[in-house]
Amino acid sequence: MNEKSCSFHNEEELRDGQVKSVSAGNSPPKDQDSSALLAFRGIPISELKNHSLLRALTTDTNGWAPGVVSPEVLRAQEEWEAVQNIQPDTGSQTDQPAQLISFSEALQHFQTIDLSSFKKRIQPTIRRTGLAALRHCLFGPPKLHQGLREERDLVLTIAQCGLDSQDPTHGRVLKTIYKKLTGSKFDCALHGDHWEDLGFQGANPATDLRGAGFLALLHLLYLVMDSKTLLMAQEIFRLSHHHIQQFPFCLMSVNITRIAIQALREECLSRECNRQQKVIPVVNSFYAATFLHLAHIWKTQQKTIADSGFVLKDLEVLAKKSPRRLLKTLELYLAGVSKGQTSLLGAQKCCGAPAPHSKDLTFTGVCDLPPHSSEGTWPA
Asked: Rounded to an integer, what distance in angstroms lies between the CA atom of residue 311 and that of residue 334?
């Protein structure tokens, strides 16, 4: 009984001393540390939670005030919180690059969204009057079949849509084009000087899509994502960086898309569309065939950027007059490429000084030349 009483008094004294020491913010002396250990040794583990000293140590600390914190610690804490709150900008590189997008997936995006406001702007066919209308009726190409006109209107509607940097699908299309042409495995920003390396005139590709809209980017996507035309696209891209014959690749592509739009509106592709019972594949192939013919002329006739406007104008006339001929040439070229027998550039190396940025080149597109005396007019 005396031992229990002595133990009880020792515990009371130890508890009072420890609690006062802790509440005062001071460390207990070393002799009290050893006394506390001796006091806890005789207590079962299951009863520790009921010990008054442990309850005092584990009570709510809402009223506890920390000591003085140095300005360096506060500044470091603020910087760390700022780092945690940083959000990546749109289009910046991330640890997980955006997945490549196929032409069919991008096309499906436009097939599922509301394009009614853009569709109101299209003019599906060229309006002809007088002798031009009579001549077209007697000797012109056949009209597009009724069942294909909705598909034709979709093509022309996409050409009215601009590039929206806030649309994830639009961003994926741009990044896919960049990766496939450059061979890069990393994402790129949607704005920046790197787009000039691909042949846009400035840091924002959206400013170069006049007259062709997002269809120009879909055509580029088709060119680089189709296994049959990717090698052709890469060869033309290398030609565009030739130290003498350089030209803005993407800007040239936009002009060829304009030619394809005009050929569709003037019903130059109707015969082939009716034969294949498709519109979009025919327009894609026509675009690729026209681009191939331009590259062939550019290389073999030693054309330079000063010739761009006149080359494109002659190309437009030929493409509208003989679309089937261009499509057949593309078919033969791709067959040769698949067998390793055809190369646009051959063994020629693009050597010499590096090609300048497209903004340093004076490029004349189709829309920049005075209109020739044709039956149709370019869409506004």
From this structure: 23
